[in-house]
Amino acid sequence: MKTYKIDTQLDDKNRARLEARQYDRAYTEVPNRALPETLSEALSIIHKGLTGEELPEQGSTFLVRADNSGTFKRLYSPTVYTNEAQSGLVIRWGDNDIPLSIGEGGVASESGDKKVKYSFKEEQVGKYAEAVLSVSYSQNGTVYSMPFPIKSLDWENPVSADALDVLVDEAPENIPGLLAVAPDPSKRGEGGGGPRMEGSIIKIAQLPIGEYEVTTYRSRETQYGIDYMMQVVGINEPFVGVTRKQDENTGEWGDAEVEIVGQCIVKPNNALKKVLAAEPVITPQDPAKLYVLSHGEYNGYATAKCKLVCNTFQGGDDVFDLDF
User: Fold this and answer.
1) Which of 21, 111, 156, 228 has the greatest CB tally within 10 Å of its CB?
2) CA distances (Å), origin 13, targets 19, 21, 123, 241, 255
3) Where are the alpha helices (DSSP H) in 90-207?
4) What is the Cα–Cα distance from 28 to 60, expressed in whole angstroms?
């Protein structure tokens, strides 16, 4: 019996091709029709074992994340999440979800072949080792296997494969609550239009008191609701801000000080989120004015009193016409 393990980070040759390409979006789907034939055949076998259906030629399996300069940053492959009701699991494969049940019998696909085998393992995904759901399926004398990364709800303290192994035997109903809910693919990454955003990401309370310009903004769906980021320019006096960075050696996330000058990406407070939710039109040609009026503290956290003045908002039948 032969074995074929699918490398979800791709071999050196094909990964190098993706890394050498320039991207004009933050997230770019790699169409299944562009995959190497051998890889496409192996993926199709796993997909059929999970769903009973062939790998769709018009769909995608891999997703490229690019940085603000359009340079390859990361490759995403199908990933395990919890469903919205947190009653089971799903594999997000491209824009489609493959439902998985989990109980005393372990993991099973609701529409797949009963011969598919599932196991929790710790495997190298990119730079770091992480928990994966390994799926194995035998066809034509070959055992095909594929690791599916598991998206933990607590990204700073992700659930381990050992813990999942224990829970699948003792308390399988607790596993879905440890995983993040699959995000809405239609709101993937960046929204709000406009050019790419550049600079370190900081919270609004770190901006010094003063007047700035916002040249674009982005919205994204998270498990906690819609979040926003703003491109802030006009920072003439350098200051030290705190951003989140991942240690290249340990893979752990932590706070790091960075010098901010010229521009940065700002996470707004709740008051500014309400303004951004009203769908202002903000572009480099028609920027919004951001005023940081004062700083404060609440429950040990730094706060800022701010005002965002926007010239234009998107119209609609259910909103005020502000041209008065």
Assistant:
1) 228
2) 10, 13, 21, 39, 35
3) 161-170
4) 10
Tell me which residue has tokens 């000080």. 257
The ranges of the chain with pLDDT < 50 are 187-194, 319
Q: Which two tokens stand for residue 3?
A: 């074995």
Could you read off the pLDDT of 214-248 as tens digits, one per residue?
A: 998 887 766 566 788 999 999 999 999 998 876 66
Element (H, E) at 296: strand 288-298
Place of tokens 């350098």: 238
Task: With beta carbons less than 8 A apart as the criterion, state whether 323 and 255 touch.
Answer: no
Q: How do the domains of the chain map onto residue ranges?
A: 2-185, 190-313
pLDDT score, position 187 = 47
The structure tokens 């703003």 sit at 230
Q: Which residues contact 291 (CB under 8 A, 6 or more apart)?
A: 210, 211, 212, 306, 307, 308, 309
Cβ atoms within 10 Å of 229's Cβ, excluding its own: 19
Per the CB < 8 A criterion, the answer to whether 194 and 217 are in contact is yes
Could you tell me the two tokens for 213? 């310009």
Structure tokens at 113: 């072949």
Which residues are paired to 306 by β-bridges?
292
Distance, in Å, from the CA atom of 258 to the CA atom of 166, rounded to the nearest integer, reads: 41
- pTM flag (> 0.85): no
3-class state of residue 114 by DSSP: coil
Please report the pLDDT score of residue 193 as a whole number. 41
Is there a contact between 285 and 279 (Cβ–Cβ < 8 Å)? no
Q: What per-residue confidence (pLDDT) applies to 219?
A: 79
Predicted local distance difference test score (pLDDT) of residue 262:
92
d(C-alpha 24, C-alpha 69), whole Å: 8
Helices (H) and strands (E) in the chain, counts: 4, 19
